[in-house]
Structures are given as C-alpha cells and as structure tokens.
Automatic annotation (TrEMBL):
Coiled coil: none annotated. GO terms for biological process: poly(A)+ mRNA export from nucleus; post-transcriptional tethering of RNA polymerase II gene DNA at nuclear periphery; transcription elongation by RNA polymerase II. This is PCI domain-containing protein. It comes from the Eukaryota. It comes from Triparma retinervis. It holds the Pfam family PCI. PANTHER family: PCI DOMAIN-CONTAINING PROTEIN 2, UNCHARACTERIZED PROTEASOME COMPONENT REGION PCI-CONTAINING. GO terms for molecular function: double-stranded DNA binding; RNA binding. GO terms for cellular component: transcription export complex 2. Residues 1-108 form the PCI domain.
Length: 114
C-alpha cells in the first residue's frame, strides 16, 4: 500500500524490514527499483490535490517530508522530479529560475500501468 499511495516511509520500512527475505528470493533489487513508482504516485497525488499546473518545489519538498522523507532537500526533490520527467512519468518541465515544476495542462498524468 505504501507504493500505491506514495507513502515513501511505509514503502521503505516494509522494504527494509523484509530485506533478508527479499534478498534470499532474489527480488530485493527489483523492489528497490520500484521506489520510482512510489515517487511517481506521490507526485501524482500532489499534482491532483493542488489543482494547479505550477507546483513550487519547496511545497513538493514539504509533501515528501510528510510522506516519510524527513531529511529531503529541495535539490533532492528537484532531482527526483527531473528523473520522473525524463522517464516519462510526469509530463512537464522544471523552471529553475522560479523553483517551480510546471506540468502539462493538456495531457493528464500518465496512467499507472506504465
């Protein structure tokens, strides 16, 4: 449920508490790569609840902290969002000058089946 809801703290605690089991079954690295899906779902929730196409990075950072990343910086959030854009999970761009993520008005967030 942590991955579906974008709750990074819940996802990471589940991953670490079952780490030995996942390693023995050979699935740990696969699940570690699923962290990007958790980021995507969190960003999608932030985007949909804000109702705006312009999302200030400091506010996104606050949402990341509320979702279980207590020591995340604005630069780290910007890096995560840049990777989400690069991988096609978010349609938009980052305005470094205004410290804002601008998402597409015309195209909705990609479906979760990707």
């Amino acid at each position: 449920t942590g991955m579906r809801t974008g709750n990074l703290g819940l996802f990471m605690s589940g991953l670490h508490s079952n780490q030995r089991t996942f390693i023995s079954k050979g699935t740990y690295l696969l699940l570690e790569k699923c962290k990007v899906l958790c980021y995507r779902n969190l960003f999608k929730r932030i985007q949909l609840t804000s109702g705006s196409t312009q999302l200030p990075i400091p506010k996104i950072s606050l949402c990341f902290k509320a979702a279980g990343c207590p020591d995340v910086s604005d630069d780290a959030v910007e890096c995560v969002v840049a990777n989400l854009i690069f991988k096609g999970f978010v349609r938009g761009y980052i305005s470094h000058e205004k410290m804002t993520v601008v998402v597409s008005k015309k195209e909705p967030p990609p479906a979760q089946t990707r």
